[in-house]
Amino acid sequence: MTFSEFTSIVERNPKGVILLEGRRAIPEAYASEAESLARCLAIRFSELRFRSGNAEGSDQAFSAGIASVDPHRLQVVAPYASHRKSVRYLDATYDSPESLSRVRDDEIAYKTATASPKNKGLIAKRNQKSALAAKAAYLIRDTMKVTGHSEDFPKPIMALFYVDLENPSEGGTGHTIRVCEQEGVPYAFQDSWEKWPKI
Prior knowledge:
Blueprint: H1 3-12, E1 17-22, H2 28-44, E2 49-52, H3 58-67, E3 74-77, E4 93-95, H4 102-115, H5 120-124, H6 131-147, E5 158-162, H7 171-183, E6 187-188, H8 190-193
Parallel strand pairs: 1-2, 1-5, 2-3, 3-4, 5-6
Helix pairs in contact: 2-3, 4-6, 6-7
């Protein structure tokens, strides 16, 4: 995807949400690129909001870029309410699967299992007190980031990822990409966004 194509998407939805995330293992040079890109987008598109997870690596780099411009426009969906509280941005908006209504939880669980069928059994155990439930919370969180789940957290208009280009479908990031495909959310990887202009 070119920057011009991205801009066209934003022009149709100037107050939309852009999902920014990816792998935890990100080289320092790419972490710097991700932070710079996020900063550039936050400056250039002053009405956009941005959403990420609460993980180390790509999420952290993208979030730092947004927070350096306007942390009020940063949304973070964590796997549980107390996740990494010590590294949070004071003015960002945080949410987690614990805020979901029962109906919404069931809907997002279904979409999670549809995107990653091999984890269907894991998702079924999401409300138990167990290690499996904790793992399920991460996948539910990843789905929430894409589907949206409230007026304040709508479906994003676009997603930008840092991935392993040789195997982008692996792990939680791969699951999130599949949910994007399922939900019709366009996305791009670093082989596209690294070429975009930086301010």
